[in-house]
């Protein structure tokens, strides 16, 4: 699934990996854009999988300085100093291929021996329960292998655990104090591959931390900045003096298209 970029040997053993879901408002992908561009992460390879719809485009970031630097549907960036790899997905998964893609992704993650997977996703804000409307619109979830992070994330970072929802009754269910809930209680409409990946990581004993942002479709730049800031506050990816200085990628200048033609006025 992974194809290295160029002739440079890449050893990601011992790294953590951040993976975005294609979800509501593209918040996870935008947050990953911020991390890649601000940290000036070099591309180390591609995700070659026939489940990803094909795409090719020009350089999306400011820091490469390479005219005609092409991007594809799935790419991997990495930083050896903070031992962090970042995946960027730019196209949806082909219809009927979600399970296949998740299987291939998890097989690659296990083969590389990443220390943990940080899954970023978003969910429709209008589907929140009453208890989720109060406070910040962010939640997290852990697989059993990551339950040791429950106390640090709740006490040190102030994160809130995703409330489980019993699908049969449409009401809240109790959950143990370890950040782990069953798939049947996981309700995240609009979150893309999040539910499948969480379930498979539980089955495959993969250490996964899922971070969820509740939002709506629209201008989601501020949501993306908030998610990137939350992840940075936990992982300390940026120096403390620069933790508020996010570098917006050049590709964002075309997020709403070009200027209106003068002929309209």
From TrEMBL:
Keywords annotated in UniProt: Chaperone, Proteasome
Domain of life, source organism: Eukaryota
InterPro entries the UniProt entry points to: Proteasome_assmbl_chaperone_2, Proteasome_assmbl_chp_2_euk, PSMG2_sf
Entry-linked Gene3D superfamilies: PAC-like subunit
GO-annotated biological processes: proteasome assembly
Family recorded in the similarity comment: Belongs to the PSMG2 family.
Protein name in UniProt: Proteasome assembly chaperone 2
Lineage, highest ranks first: Eukaryota, Metazoa, Porifera, Demospongiae, Heteroscleromorpha
């Amino acid at each position: 699934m992974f194809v290295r970029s160029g002739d440079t040997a890449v050893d990601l053993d011992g790294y953590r990996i951040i993976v975005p879901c294609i979800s509501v408002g593209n918040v996870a992908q935008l947050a990953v854009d911020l991390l890649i561009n601000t940290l000036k992460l070099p591309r180390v390879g591609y995700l070659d999988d026939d489940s990803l719809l094909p795409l090719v485009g020009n350089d999306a970031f400011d820091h490469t300085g390479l005219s005609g630097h092409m991007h594809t549907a799935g790419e991997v960036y990495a930083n050896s100093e903070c031992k962090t790899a970042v995946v960027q997905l730019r196209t949806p998964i082909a219809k009927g291929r979600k399970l296949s893609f998740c299987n291939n992704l998890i097989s690659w993650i296990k083969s590389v021996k990443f220390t943990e997977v940080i899954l970023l996703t978003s969910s429709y804000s209008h589907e929140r329960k009453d208890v989720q409307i109060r406070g910040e619109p962010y939640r997290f979830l852990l697989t059993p292998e990551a339950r040791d992070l429950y106390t640090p994330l709740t006490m040190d970072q102030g994160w809130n655990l995703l409330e489980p929802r019993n699908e049969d009754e449409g009401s809240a269910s109790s959950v143990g104090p370890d950040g782990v809930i069953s798939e049947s209680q996981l309700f995240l409409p609009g979150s893309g591959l999040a539910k499948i990946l969480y379930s498979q990581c539980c089955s495959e004993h993969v250490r996964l931390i899922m971070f969820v942002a509740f939002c709506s479709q629209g201008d989601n730049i501020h949501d993306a900045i908030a998610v990137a800031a939350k992840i940075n506050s936990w992982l300390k990816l940026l120096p403390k003096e620069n933790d508020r200085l996010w570098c917006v990628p050049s590709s964002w200048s075309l997020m709403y298209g070009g200027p209106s033609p003068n002929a309209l006025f």
